[in-house]
Amino acid sequence: MGIMSGTSLDGIDAVLADFNSQPPSLLHTFYQPYDKNLRRQILELHQSGNDELHRAAMLSNALAHCYAKAVINLLKKNKIEPQSVAAIGCHGQTVRHRPELEMGYSIQLGNAALLAELTGITVVADFRSRDIAAGGQGAPLVPIFHQLLFQDPKIHRVIVNIGGISNITSLATNTEVVGFDCGPGNLLMDAWCQRHLGATYDENGTWAESGKVIPDLLEKLMLLQFFSLPPPKSTGREVFNIIWLESYLSGNEKPEDVQATLLQLTGTTIANAILAYFSDATEVYLCGGGARNMALTSKIQVLLPKKKVALTDTLGANADWLEAFAFAWLAKQAILGVPGNLPSVTNAKEARILGAIYKA
Ligand SMILES: Nc1ncnc2c1ncn2[C@@H]1O[C@H](COP(=O)(O)OP(=O)(O)O)[C@@H](O)[C@H]1O
Ligand SMILES: [Mg+2]
Question: What DSSP line would sit under 173-239, residue for residue?
Answer without folding.
Answer: SSS--EEEEEEESSHHHHHHHHHHH--SS-GGGHHHHTS---HHHHHHHHT-HHHHSPSS----TTT
